[in-house]
Specification:
binds heme C, 20% helix, elongated, alpha+beta
Length: 423
């Protein structure tokens, strides 16, 4: 082998090694499933406490009534009895055993904190229960300082801070990269005022002590609200819009509407149109999140001053599509700041729609896991604009709908936001 060839070979082997190293060590400070960090965790102290006699989540209710009630209506409690995962084509009534570990899990601290969840044999109807997150052998992991009352409590609480870490959620919630998205967003920056972890948004501080007779005024809510809750969905994102007239500069409109500086190609003008922004303002990860069924749709309809309201038309869909959903495959391929056009047929007119994705101000170059996806990353915007056909005076109504399944109608969906523009 001549020496040049040898150098090339060594360099490419080095390249492969670097790539492999980067794949394993994706991000500094990251804690992931099976990560060696889980071995560094010092487990809760179990001595000084007798056996744990409590067997089910219902046994906690007498002393932690508020928390029990919150959990009782949550999708964590529902994880085993929920008919959705049981559907024939999905787990076939959990005959597919691969589906059981996260839907009826054993206590996570016992199976290896931060490691993959394992399936439980007993009381599966309790789904993701109190023991899943708190139990370690004969004790319960407590995130807070304990009061003297704790000494005689039958649940044997012991202080153990790691229970409030993101590492508790990731073994089950990172299969579609929710934690990975969060790690790349401004919310994961520990020393910044934007810092918010999973619990800040999903376990909000709630009135009431959480423990009967407890001295604290508040506790962390255990409802774990997500896609099934209209309240948290209202905080997820926004839609806003302004009218654009002949002579208006689109760049100025963008600046006043959104305070963002993205400039369209010079000379882009509209005679009588509308500029819309859809933005992920409150979701600490992709919106919609990575449960593969979800979709967020932007619909528009024109309400003429005189005459019947039009049928609503879909302007855009935000979603991580399945392979066979060709109509949803991302035309952007994650290309930012590029104006893409498509024509939609709308109440007998052909409307040319332009769309641009504007990357988040924080960490715009973040790694993208699903290039075919049109989900909005935390902080990301989509601008859309078009000329309005000659429909006379009236109001354009824009609505952002959240759909648990992509084939649900707007009536079966949750309204995230709405905006009106008068003409
Ligand atoms: C007879 C009453 C009683 C029962 C039943 C009970 N607990 Fe407790 N629990 C307490 C008391 C008292 C404390 C201490 C509260 C404090 O120090 O502020 C406590 C503390 C805790 C803590 C720590 C709270 C913190 O401030 O971080 C957890 C977690 C906990 N219990 C879980 C459970 C679970 C899970 C069950 C059911 C399997 C349960 N408890 C059943 C009385 C009870
Ligand atoms: C690694 C853990 C894990 C495994 C294994 C797992 N799931 Fe899930 N599943 C989850 C989590 C976490 C959610 C909640 C995700 C969300 O809402 O974003 C969920 C939610 C679901 C939902 C949506 C429920 C609803 O009401 O919207 C369905 C359906 C589902 N899972 C089916 C399955 C099937 C089928 C399998 C087996 C092929 C499976 N899951 C295996 C963790 C898991
Ligand atoms: C042992 C696995 C497991 C752990 C740990 C876990 N979850 Fe879940 N979570 C699930 C499953 C499974 C579902 C969906 C159940 C269903 O709908 O069938 C779910 C659902 C949710 C939902 C969505 C509710 C909805 O409306 O669809 C939120 C939000 C959530 N979890 C947040 C969290 C947070 C925050 C943590 C960490 C504190 C966490 N989870 C820890 C398994 C887990
Ligand atoms: C998905 C995981 C999860 C489940 C399920 C869960 N907890 Fe918790 N719980 C937590 C976390 C995380 C905290 C600590 C939040 C913090 O303070 O940072 C907590 C806090 C608590 C506290 C202290 C509350 C406070 O803020 O003062 C009590 C008591 C408690 N849990 C009891 C229960 C009981 C009882 C159940 C079942 C009905 C339950 N938990 C189910 C994760 C869970
Ligand atoms: C800044 C607030 C915020 C942070 C931080 C955050 N979330 Fe969320 N999350 C939301 C909002 C808002 C929604 C509802 C919109 C949606 O489903 O996309 C949501 C939805 C979810 C859902 C429900 C998805 C579904 O399909 O039903 C899960 C599961 C979830 N988050 C888990 C997590 C986990 C795990 C973390 C931490 C790694 C986290 N979230 C961090 C705000 C947040």
């Amino acid at each position: 082998m001549n020496s040049n060839l040898r150098i090339v070979l060594v360099l490419s082997l080095l390249g492969i090694a670097v790539v492999a190293y980067n794949l394993v060590n994706q991000e500094p400070g990251k804690v992931s499933i099976g990560n060696p960090e889980s071995d560094k965790i010092i487990l809760p102290k179990t001595d000084g406490h007798g056996p744990l006699l409590l067997k089910s989540s219902a046994d906690c209710a007498p002393c932690h009534q508020e928390i029990y009630d919150e959990w009782k209506g949550s999708h964590h409690e529902f994880a085993w009895l929920n008919p959705e995962p049981r559907r024939k084509e999905l787990s076939n009534n959990f005959r597919n055993k691969d589906c059981i570990p996260c839907h009826a899990p054993r206590p996570l601290i016992e199976v290896g904190y931060g490691d993959r969840a394992l399936e439980r044999e007993t009381r599966r109807e309790d789904g993701v229960n109190c023991f899943t997150c708190h139990k370690f052998k004969n004790v319960m992991a407590a995130a807070n300082d304990l009061s003297p009352m704790a000494k005689t409590a039958p649940c044997n609480p012991v202080p153990w801070q790691p229970v409030s870490r993101v590492m508790l959620c990731s073994p089950c919630h990172d299969q579609h990269k929710v934690e990975q998205d969060w790690l790349r967003s401004k919310y994961s920056q520990v020393d910044s005022e934007d810092y918010k972890d999973c619990n800040d948004c999903h376990m909000p501080i709630t009135p009431g002590p959480g423990t009967k007779g407890g001295s604290r005024k508040t506790h962390r809510g255990h409802g774990f609200k997500g896609g099934h809750d209209a309240g948290i969905l209202k905080t997820a994102g926004i839609v806003r819009a302004v009218a654009v007239k002949e002579g208006d500069s689109l760049a100025d409109k963008i600046a006043t509407l959104t305070k963002r500086k993205w400039q369209p190609k010079s000379g882009t003008t509209l005679k009588r149109g509308v500029l819309i922004e859809v933005k992920n303002t409150g979701t600490g990860h992709n919106f919609p999140s990575d449960e593969r069924h979800r979709a967020v749709d932007l619909y528009a309809r024109f309400l003429p001053k005189n005459g019947k309201p039009q049928e609503a038309v879909r302007l855009a869909r935000f979603r991580n599509p399945y392979r066979n959903e060709f109509e949803n495959i991302n035309p952007f391929k994650d290309k930012p700041n590029t104006a893409l056009k498509n024509t939609i047929s709308w109440a007998g007119a052909d409307v040319e729609l332009t769309q641009v994705r504007i990357l988040p101000a924080f960490n715009p170059d973040r790694k993208v896991f699903y290039p075919e996806s049109t989900q909005l990353h935390a902080g990301e915007s989509r601008f859309l604009w078009f000329e309005l056909p000659d429909w006379g005076g009236g109001v354009l109504e824009l609505t952002l709908y959240y759909k648990l399944q992509p084939y649900l109608s707007n009536e079966e969906s949750t309204e995230v936001g709405r905006s009106h523009v008068s003409f």
